[in-house]
Amino acid sequence: MSFCLDTYLQQSDNYEILASQAGFKDCARLIRFKAPEIVYVNAGEEILGSRVIGITPIPIGVDSKKGTVLIPYTKPCYGTAVVELPVDMAEIEKIRTLNINR
Prior knowledge:
5-stranded antiparallel beta sheet, two-stranded antiparallel ribbon, 3 helices, alpha+beta
């Protein structure tokens, strides 16, 4: 499955914004608090079709039971948001392969 986060957020309502217009550190803290599993990635990695912006290590939350991920989504001039969205297990596995804390 090809997935593009930017397109998905524009065309779907099937996601939840847990925080918006926040600083990166606050969003990273929220992801670490809310997600049952954390995958840490480097800044610039492509996650769900978009490059993540932030301070390495960037936490990506994974909830396998719900089939969702929590990601920090930064838009210049708008700040960082934490978005929880459903993804299939193949996308979750792709994210897990980027883990820098193995």
